[in-house]
Amino acid sequence: MKNKKDFLSITDLSSKAIWEIIVMAKKLKKEFNQTGTTQESLKNKSLIMIFEKPSLRTRLSFEVGMIRLGGHAVYLGPSDIRMGVRESVSDITKVVSSMGEVIMARTFKHQTVEELARSSKVPVINGLSDLEHPCQALADFMTISEIKGKL
Fold it and tell me: How far apart are alpha carbons 8 and 125 in whole angstroms?
């Protein structure tokens, strides 16, 4: 994928980009809460979710988010792929990135997310690693913005 943009760290985004994401997320949230209808911006798009460790909130937020944007999420849990045991991270990424438009990974080691990004043809999102949880940081920024009106 040309100009592939991974989101592995909150520092991958400028402050302007962070604000634009928050503004868009607030708009989408408001529209959904008022109308109950989903968007079609991710129609026919698939998010492949790779989980080395289980999660309630991360899985739900990504799956529900994809559904509300018209897309689909595929969950691959620890026992489904046994990343690095049954197949190498690189081999798994090559297969997964050939079948979906974006990958989200919740890993034990940040270096695993980095390896996924290096091997992937599609953007990779860090859903949590031992170094960082950039999606949670964005959610926290949005909550602060909603409560305080600014960051």
Answer: 6
Q: How far apart are CA 81 and CA 92, in angstroms?
A: 8
**Model pLDDT for residues 85-99, shown as the tens digit of each residue:** 778 888 899 999 999
Q: What is the CATH number of the domain that holds 109?
A: 3.40.50.1370
Phi-psi region of 3 (alpha: psi -120 to 50; beta: other; left: phi over 0): left
**pLDDT by residue (tens digit) across 19-53?**
999 999 999 999 999 998 888 999 999 999 999 98
Whether residue 77 is contained in a domain is answered as yes
Q: How far apart are CA 92 and CA 55, in angstroms?
A: 21
Stated pTM of the model: 0.92
For position 2, what pLDDT does the model report? 55
What secondary structure does DSSP assign to 75-117, as a single string? EE-HHHH-BTTTB-HHHHHHHHHTT-SEEEEE-S-HHHHHHHH
Is 1 within the bounds of a domain? no
Cα atoms in the 13 Å half-sphere on the side-chain side of 146: 13
